[in-house]
Amino acid sequence: MITVHHLNNSRSQRVLWLLEELELPYDIVRYERDAKTMLAPPELRKVHPLGKSPVVTTDEGLVLAESGAIIETLIERHGQGRLAPAAGSAEALRYRYWLHYAEGSAMPPLLLKLIFDRIESSKMPFFVKPVARMIAGKAKAGFVTPNLRTHLDFMEGELGKGEWFAGPDFTGADIQMSFPVEAAKARGGLDASRPRLMAWLERIHARPAYRRALERGGPYGLLS
Ligand SMILES: N[C@@H](CCC(=O)N[C@@H](CS)C(=O)NCC(=O)O)C(=O)O
Questions:
Q1: How many CB atoms lie within 10 A of CB 212?
Q2: Which atom of ligand 1 is least distant from the CA of 54?
Q3: How far is Cα 165 from Cα 110, in angstroms, rounded to an integer?
Q4: Whether residue 7 has its Cβ less than 6 Å from ligand 1
Q5: pLDDT of 179-200, one tens digit each?
């Protein structure tokens, strides 16, 4: 049996979705973010030293962390030809690229945006506030926002090559890419000016397995 250590409003939603796509049985152990810090509770460190979600454990004693590695491993072990392109194909190269790109390149500017937005809106002594706001504003204008724009343009362009990120077929790369694209829609400037990304979001949200994963995972704030 596979157990998903699931943190609310987090990347582990992707793993639930993958398991629904693969129609595999699984258990969920739930963890709630701290309402103030948004950090995971300390119990998650008992499962994996980083205390981040997702983590997947199995009855054989495997502990898998890092969402891209989890997705790749579960598809390799249980996909039976589904959700990954044939080895050696051009699509397989694209598949691997997007599996890594999602966390390695797309997420860092989105995370920076979240941090600087929080700095701007957080409570602090009145005499510090203008300085903190100025630093956050400069970092966003000079680095974060232009980078986000570049990434959104890039992803929008790539979806012009095929309906899904790795090509003509839906794969685990689309599952992995869901988190940055949903985060970009929620807080990174993705809107109707990028119609291919918006249409891709509609396509993933219409998948029955995606909806089943939402039912099992519970409320998921990135959809707002
Ligand atoms: N690159 C890792 C990132 C893991 C990660 O940062 N997860 C977030 C949830 S989306 C988390 O656990 N945050 C809570 C914390 O850092 O305490 C992955 O893709 O698995």
A1: 16
A2: 20
A3: 19
A4: yes
A5: 999 999 999 999 999 999 999 9
Residue nearest to atom 2 of ligand 1 (CA): 66
Confidence (pTM): 0.96
- From the alpha carbon of 68, which atom of ligand 1 is closest? 19
Furthest C-alpha separation in the chain? 61
d(C-alpha 16, C-alpha 26), whole Å: 9
Q: Does residue 14's CB lie within 6 angstroms of at least one atom of ligand 1?
A: no
DSSP 163: S
pLDDT for 136-193, tens place per residue? 899 999 999 999 999 999 999 999 999 999 999 999 999 999 999 999 999 999 999 9
Which ligand 1 atom is the nearest neighbour of the CA of 103? 1
Quote the tokens at residue 168. 């003509």
The HSE-up count of residue 173 (CA atoms within 13 Å, CB side) is: 24
Structure tokens at 99: 């599996």
Looking at residue 127, its pLDDT comes to 87
55 pocket-lining for ligand 1 (C-beta < 6 Å): no
